[in-house]
Design goal:
Oligomer: single chain
Strand content: under 5%
Structural class: mainly alpha
Shape: elongated
Order of helices and strands: HHHHH
Helix content: over 70%
Largest sheet: none
CATH class of one domain: Mainly Alpha
CATH topology of one domain: Four Helix Bundle (Hemerythrin (Met), subunit A)
Distance between the termini: 66 Å
Radius of gyration: 23 Å
């Protein structure tokens, strides 16, 4: 009888240990999946907090809008060699914009509204750029490509300038901007 109880006890410990290991591995897989889905550009880790994946905070929404715009662009098939350079530029801008959003989330509450308004306008412009790129891949001939790319480059430059204004506003106040 003692041998039977010992066997049951050992089996119980093994089952509980197996369930605990499965829970740990499952938790890690969920964490990696959430971290991956939080990336603005696939393969580049984001500085955004993990809880932004489903958060309703304004900063989290801006982060997801940038991520979704880039995802839409990345999922658009193209064989235009000019598009690879443009996509790379857009992706760099997306990471920079996302970093600005993360930085803005750390500002004092009294300073956030103005900065978030500026970032929201930048995200609107970024979404417009990616939407134009997505639709461009389906309908332009070679004569129109250069003009479109020049216009998109100009819009990216304007977006970069808007982002720099936010940078300068944060730097002017030094640490007083942060809680």
């Amino acid at each position: 009888m003692a041998g039977f109880l010992l066997t049951i006890l050992i089996l119980g410990v093994l089952v509980v240990g197996g369930l605990a290991a499965a829970a740990v591995l499952g938790g890690k897989a969920v964490g990696k999946n959430a971290e991956k889905k939080n990336q603005v550009v696939a393969g580049i880790p984001s500085n955004a907090p993990a809880n932004w994946y489903g958060s309703h905070e304004p900063e989290a929404k801006l982060h997801r809008r940038v991520r979704d715009a880039v995802t839409g662009l990345q999922e658009t098939p193209t064989d235009d060699p000019n598009m690879f350079e443009v996509r790379a530029s857009v992706e760099r801008e997306a990471v920079s914009l996302d970093n600005q959003i993360v930085a803005a989330s750390k500002l004092a509450d009294r300073l956030k509204p103005d900065v978030l308004e500026s970032l929201s306008a930048a995200v609107d412009q970024f979404e417009d750029i990616t939407a134009r790129l997505i639709t461009r891949t389906s309908g332009l001939d070679d004569d129109n490509v250069r003009g479109e790319l020049d216009e998109l480059t100009e819009r990216l430059d304007l977006l970069r300038e808007a982002r720099q204004e936010v940078d300068e506003a944060q730097q002017e106040g030094g640490t007083q901007y942060f809680d």
